[in-house]
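Example 3.2
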Amino acid sequence: MVAVRQPYALEARPMRDEDVGAVCAIEKEAYAYPWTAGIFRDCMRVGYWCRVFEQCGVIDAYGILSLAAGECHILNLCVRADVQGRGIGRKVLMHMLAYARQQGTDTAFLEVRPSNSAAIRLYRDFGFNEVGLRKRYYPATSGREDAIVMALNL
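Structure, written as tokens:
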């Protein structure tokens, strides 16, 4: 019998070393310039908040968050392509921000590609505002792409 996956029935748990292969597969599907397995392992090693969000044992999304000096930085938030559009990214972001608030964080920051309109829309829906621009921050097929810096007062 095959388990039927119910929408939005996500469970969050800490990312483990054995998750890195599945996380990298999602990352490679989503981004032209994905993080490497080493980057994910380094994030876990240094103690960043690294979580996977799964349903019926299948990882649908993940989030990486760093916390320091009353601020948090959303380093990565990604949803598997075949389950996008179901509110999973929203749920992951809510979980990340709730954790940051519990830790006494005052402000959340992130960078996003100007070409990633779905992510920008999500962040604006949560109240993030553009606070800066990092010129030539991301690798791109035609050289480099800027990053919009966004912030949210928690």
